[in-house]
Amino acid sequence: MSDLLEKYVRPEKNPGTACKGCGLRLAHRRVLEAIDELGLGQGDVVWGTGIGCSGRQTFVTWKGDTFAGTHGRVYAMATGLRLALPPEKRLILTVGDGDAFTIGFLHLLNAARRNVDMTVVVFDNLGYQSTGGQYGVTTPLGSRTDSSPYGAWEPNWTQGGFDVLRILKEAGATFLARHTVLQGHEPVESLKRAIRNPGFSLVQLIYPCVTHYGVQALGTRDPAAIYDWFRERTAGLIEGDPGDRFTTGILHDASGSRVEFSAAMRDFVASVQKGERHV
Amino acid sequence: MKRTFDTGNAAITEGAIRAGCSLFAGYPITPATEIAENMSRRLPQVGGYYLQAEDENAALHICNGGAIGGLKAMTATSGPGFILFADAFGWAVSSEVPVVIVNSQRVGPVSGITGAPGQGEFYLSRYLTHGGNFETIVLAPSSVQEAFRLTVRAFYLAERFRTPVIVLADQMVTDGWETLELPESEAEFTAMGLEVVPRRIHPGPEFYPASDAIDIPPVVLGHNTGAACSDWTPTDRGHDTEDVTWQHKHAWRLIHKIRNHRELIDEAEEWFLDDDPDVILVAYGTPSRVVQSAVRAARREGLRVGGIRLISLWPFQDRMFSRTATYLTVELNWDGQLVREVQRAAAAGSSVHFWGRCGELPSSGELLETVQKLLKNEPLERDGWRTEKW
Ligand code: SF4
User: Fold this and answer.
1) Residues in Cβ contact with A177 at an 8 Å cutoff, skipping those fewer than 6 apart
2) Atom 2 (ligand 1): residue with closest C-alpha?
3) CA separation, residue B122 to residues B55, B60, B128, B179 (Å)
4) Residue A276: what pLDDT?
């Protein structure tokens, strides 16, 4: 594993900012494993991040080119950047659940609609943890957090018949998967497919927050106990209402089925320049 | 030279294209929609990309994303969209990304009056984001021809200073029809005093030097230079830091790269200032055209009246107000914005007054009447909402 870090991660940014015992480092590592197994080098990937725990952990760790956007806007930035980058460059964004599914959701939906070639990896810590632990749209119902002291009751996007990934599927995303970081190599396989897809891919990677979610919602900071709680809740793909379980697996793989946005843009522009289109 | 009769919207479009703009992202909004429409037609013809964003916030972020990929990018809007740029504008300022923003000012606040000229974003254009610790470049055209010139110039300054540059126009400049001369060759372009700086690529690793130097290539991703840019306070290598010394270095650069090279930015026009006039009218944008007529009319009547038209608004040109005089700012707003800066900058012993209106221009006669009152030391205030005392 240290080989991977040596290969891809700036030494001054190792081991990163995540709390001791947090699953975030494992999540970060899963992405590096996928990159490595695809045989990609530092010059093949441009890496963007949002803010929060995931942004702080991953920003400017990548030895190659890297950027961090304002909260929730990195999908819009990546849309512009994609038009500038050569098609073979892989664009990977590591962001949090709040970044992708709340503040940035409009931009995420539009990136999916356009099928912009990017891989969004949502490091989902089940709420707003870098601000001290408040509930978000992936926080299990009933969870006690600092802003839900009576238990989270606002409808979320993972229970009660909702699945945020289904919304993204309808919006046009061409690859969608969800895993926990504790599922061994499974998430790596999905990440590889996501990165390979020449279109909009999103992988939701749920990971345990020990400092806030563990303490506030589960009543423990002990990683072993928290990880057990995660494992108990983890299920495969489930037809119908999964209750309070994390349904995991590849929810949608339509890789290559839709024309990619920057390719379509280049074709469109070329056709105007060749005089094939007129106003 | 191609002589046409066209709008400011068309002039801005042609200026952007001649400056090498290859990405426009925008969101339809009166009265800036025609800039987007023109771009959607013209950009693909020259190999550039036009796209319609989900909102203005996204529009400028898309431009920022294109810009850090090496594209010259522009967006255009009016007040309600301009305010949504706060997020992306701050990112571009802090990450030192060249990008051009056009604002065709209409009447506010909020949606206000859509199709009438206003000048309510004088201060907002200076502080289009939160947090302070930066200086801003803002240019203000007052004619169709100048809208062309200042758009080219905005791209030029954006590249040299590595910063977003705002073209602060108004509805009359962008919607107005006038003669527009467009250069048809390099020689004609240069003869108009125009210049283009191509996008360069910073080789790294010191992407953010603690210096006030300009002409440093911007950060461009995709060339495996270890490029790093973000919303965080950067070290010289672009790494995120919470260290106050780095923050001070960064802020110092953002402020003084502009302030210490302001001779490249400052631009103003003067009318009849040689005989130390008693009253000096001050304006920018479309109202300055009425000011010019009013000053001429006053001179015909033998009154010692002069005028100043600010072409670059920010950084503010204090030097233009070093004469002790009676100043009168003429603005398309009721609250008085430019007047505050003139009050601050005016030489000791000056008196500074405000003439404001929104949605329509003053007449030269109205301004002349006000000047006469000032010359006679009569108070300017009138009763009620019409022209309350400022
Ligand atoms: S606050 Fe929670 S999610 Fe964030 S780094 Fe610490 S343990 Fe991980």
Assistant:
1) A187, A190, A191, A193, A194, A202, A203, A204, A248, A249, A250, A251
2) A209
3) 23, 20, 10, 27
4) 96
What ipTM is given for this predicted complex? 0.97
DSSP 8-state secondary structure symbol assigned to residue A103: I
Residue A126 near ligand 1, beta carbon < 6 Å: no
Domain B270-386 in the same topology as domain B2-191:
yes
Is B240 in Cβ contact with A59 (below 8 Å)? Answer: yes
**Beta pairing class for B73-77 and B23-26:** parallel
User: pTM to 2 decimals?
Assistant: 0.97
CATH number of the domain located at residue range(s) B270-386 in this protein: 3.40.50.920
From start to end of chain A, where are the E strands? 45-49, 65-68, 90-96, 118-124, 175-180, 200-206, 234-235, 246-247, 249-253
Instruction: Delimit the domains of chain B by residue range.
Output: 2-191, 270-386
- DSSP state for residue B317 in the 8-state scheme: -
Could you read off the pLDDT of B320-351 as tens digits, one per residue? 999 999 999 999 999 999 999 999 999 999 99
Whether ligand 1 lies within 6 angstroms of the CB of A46 is answered as: no
Provide the token pair at A83.
Answer: 């038009």
* B69 neighbourhood in chain A, CB within 8 Å: 80-85
Ligand 1 atom index nearest CA of A56: 5
Domain boundaries along the sequence of chain A: 2-273
Which atom number of ligand 1 is nearest to the Cα of residue A57?
5
- Indicate the class that CATH gives domain A2-273: alpha beta
CA of A107 from ligand 1 middle (Å) equals: 25
* Range B2-191 classified under CATH 3.40.50.970: yes
Residue A65 identity (one-letter amino acid): D
